[in-house]
Write a structure and sequence with these properties.
- The strands form 2 sheets. Strands 3-2-1-4-5-6-7 form a 7-stranded parallel sheet, with helices on both faces. A 6-stranded parallel sheet has the order 10-9-8-11-12-13, with helices on both faces.
- The two termini are 19 Å apart.
- The protein contains 13 helices and 13 strands.
- 39% of the residues lie in helices and 15% in strands.
- By secondary structure, it is an alpha/beta fold.
Length: 371
């Protein structure tokens, strides 16, 4: 069901990276896609995001400063500079002040920020806030929710796994999986090479994909932004060469073409992956996936075709499963079936339609969501 009239939505982005293409990671891609889709469906979206993001308006109050790193060598995807609270969080607080002052202009807030401040402020903003839980349980988030006594907030989780984790910490939520735009990930013809794509960080463990490719004697292309220089320089880059190539961070069209021309995608999460956009993205291209069964990833496999999972960190099992998939590589008709199943379950359009219903139901004040 479409919203009866256009919604007036404030979207709060995570603070670490600009929300633009090529995306810094899956979280940034999900937020970009949400804003783009909501605007394309006629909604009025005010975007609070770091400088350099797409979709920013003319009001400078909603443009947040970039992170200020004193030593670039210390920059990782899991650390923050000393000025994070005094500069970045302070700017977010001022943006929320402006939203609260103009509360009659807005219907709902869609919060994707990983800082607990929006949850602290939720009871005083006068606008219902929907926070999407993209990560494992964060104690600062839990404390903020408790301090606010739950007022002003409802929560969505990107997987049932994530929902259960947060429920155990006292934060109830409704499951709404991430969505992927099928037009951005077209069906590809396949090929001979393996591909791994994502953030180059320890918790994604691309070096394990290299180990699998070496055992198989297959060429592997690794694509993605380096999010931990020490990890990349000590664990991944020394393994390059002899059939292992690093393509760097690719623009969306180039990345989709790479995945669509690959025999299969390897996914090697070394943490409890809350969702894992790589799975649906690859499947939309028709390329099967062999990955570790961790976190919310098995939910994707259960709802899709062409995703094959093995026990966590078991390189031998992944090698054997990948060999079997490569032996019986899907033909074009089978690749099309893989794509159709992924589009039916994980399309961005379905997610946005569900968000419209949730936002419309909350217009005028927060209520409980159906689990």
């Amino acid at each position: 069901m479409r919203a009866r009239r256009p919604l007036r939505i404030v979207v709060i982005a995570p603070l670490r990276f600009p929300i633009r293409r090529p995306h810094a990671g899956g979280l940034e891609a999900a937020v970009w896609s949400e804003v783009d889709a909501l605007r394309s469906r006629g909604h009025d979206v005010t975007f609070i995001a770091p400088d350099g993001s797409d979709f920013l308006g003319e009001d400078d109050a909603f443009t947040l400063p970039s992170l200020q790193w004193g030593d670039r060598a210390e920059q990782t995807d899991t650390t923050w500079p000393e000025t994070y609270d005094t500069l970045n969080a302070a700017a977010l607080s001022r943006a929320l002040d402006k939203v609260a002052a103009d509360r009659q202009r807005y219907d709902v807030i869609s919060n994707h920020c990983l800082h607990p401040l929006p949850l602290h402020r939720a009871p005083t903003l006068g606008i219902p806030m929907v926070t999407t839980l993209h990560t494992p349980v964060d104690t600062a988030f839990v404390d903020a929710h408790r301090a606010a006594r739950g007022a002003g907030s409802v929560f969505l989780s990107v997987s049932a796994h994530t929902k259960v984790q947060w429920q155990g910490a006292g934060v109830p939520s409704t499951t709404l999986p991430n969505g992927v735009d099928p037009e951005a990930w077209p069906l590809g013809p396949g090929g001979d090479d393996l591909v791994w794509f994502g953030r180059i960080v320890p918790e994604k463990a691309p070096h394990l994909a290299v180990d699998v490719a070496r055992r198989l004697g297959r060429r592997l292309v690794v694509a993605g932004r380096v999010g931990d220089a020490h990890y990349a320089e000590t664990q991944l880059f020394p393994r390059l060469g002899h059939g292992i190539a690093y393509a760097g961070p690719l623009a969306p069209d180039a990345l989709a073409a790479l995945v669509g021309h690959s025999a299969l995608t390897l996914t090697t999460p070394a943490w409890q992956e809350p969702f894992g956009l790589v799975g649906p993205e690859s499947l939309l291209c028709g390329s099967p996936v062999v990955g570790f069964a961790v976190g919310g990833v098995p939910e994707i496999a259960a709802a899709a075709v062409g995703m094959h999972l093995v026990p966590a960190a078991d390189v031998g099992a992944m090698t054997r499963r990948a060999a079997a998939v490569l032996t019986d590589a899907p033909r074009r008709e089978e690749r099309a079936a893989i794509r159709r199943a992924a589009a039916e379950r994980f399309s961005l359009q379905s997610r946005i339609a569900a968000l419209e219903e949730i936002f419309t139901g909350l217009r005028g004040g927060p209520t409980e969501l159906t689990a």
